[in-house]
Automatic annotation (TrEMBL):
Transmembrane portions of the chain: none
Family matches, as Pfam families: Glyoxalase_6
Full protein name: VOC family protein
InterPro entries noted in UniProt: Anthracycline_SecMetBiosynth, Glyas_Bleomycin-R_OHBP_Dase, Glyoxalase_6, VOC_core
SUPFAM superfamilies with a match to the protein in the record: Glyoxalase/Bleomycin resistance protein/Dihydroxybiphenyl dioxygenase
Superkingdom of this protein's organism: Bacteria
UniProt domain VOC: residue ranges: 12-126, 140-255
Annotated source species: Streptomyces beihaiensis
CDD domains xrefs: SgaA_N_like
Length: 257
């Protein structure tokens, strides 16, 4: 269990957010699946709620404007001490800044960007809102992984923007590396080649911790979601990839594995 006590080092995944069309139904789904409660605000980007577990903020859900047909996807936010400077570096290194930088009331300042392979991520400069107050326990974010065609070029982008160190898995048939900050793993990059879903392209995958993966998969189906990849044992422990009723894909992983 990790509780956020202070501002996170730049590049640390610090928040995760989902933009959907039907907020009420989405809150009902995740409330039933993860035990989340919800608190409104900030509303700078339209209707928005923060999900809480045991009174601690763990994620955000906002409403997409009706005329915006963007992919429904969980988006990780990476910490920055200066979001304007980070956004400029993103552009300089071949990425795109799609939203911002802009203020989210007293909470902080944000931008939404995409890397050169098209994967979308957020940048968060904390003010009052430091980000996730709880991680790694059931109902909270456990890990973030970039799923892309190949790791080498896109990892260089994240290194240049956020100063990550890399640790590769040495394997002839497994293109995988971990991104580290100050000697600590914070995210991973998985090159899947032609197995990259054509309808999604490169994307960040959010892993949520659960008590029991098989039970969580059953509940997802009962609540109107569906299974993308059935429960299986992996290097992360037992995992399954699922989607919520609007199609946002995420992975559930057994806590403590």
């Amino acid at each position: 269990m990790t509780e956020a006590a202070a501002r996170r080092a730049p590049g640390t995944p610090c928040w995760v957010s989902l933009m959907v069309h039907g907020m009420a139904a989405t809150q009902e789904f995740y409330g039933a699946l993860f035990g989340w409660d919800f608190r409104p605000g900030p509303q700078q980007l339209g209707p928005y709620v923060r999900a809480l577990l045991d009174g601690k903020e763990v994620a955000g859900i906002g409403r997409l404007p009706a005329d915006r047909h963007l992919p429904i996807a969980w988006t990780p936010y990476l910490a920055s001490d200066d979001v304007d400077a980070t956004a400029e570096t993103v552009r300089h290194c071949g990425g795109t800044v799609g939203v911002g930088p802009l203020d989210a009331a007293e909470a902080g300042r944000l931008a939404i960007a995409s890397d050169p392979s098209g994967a979308v991520f957020g940048i968060w400069q904390a003010a009052e809102h430091l980000g996730m107050a709880l991680t790694g326990v059931p109902g909270t974010v456990a890990w973030n992984e970039l799923v892309t065609a190949e790791t080498a070029s896109v990892a260089k982008f994240y290194q240049a923007v956020f100063g990550y160190e890399e640790e590769a898995v040495v394997s002839a048939d497994f293109d995988y590396l971990t991104l580290h900050l100050r000697g600590r793993p914070v995210a991973s990059v998985h090159g899947v080649g032609h197995a990259l879903p054509r309808d999604r392209g490169s994307h960040w995958m959010t892993y949520f911790a659960v008590d029991d993966v098989d039970d969580a998969v059953e509940r997802v189906a009962d609540l109107g979601g569906h299974v993308v990849r059935p429960a299986r044992d992996s290097s992360h422990g037992r995992v399954a990839t699922v989607a919520d009723p609007e199609g946002a894909v995420f992975t559930v992983v057994e806590a403590g594995t």
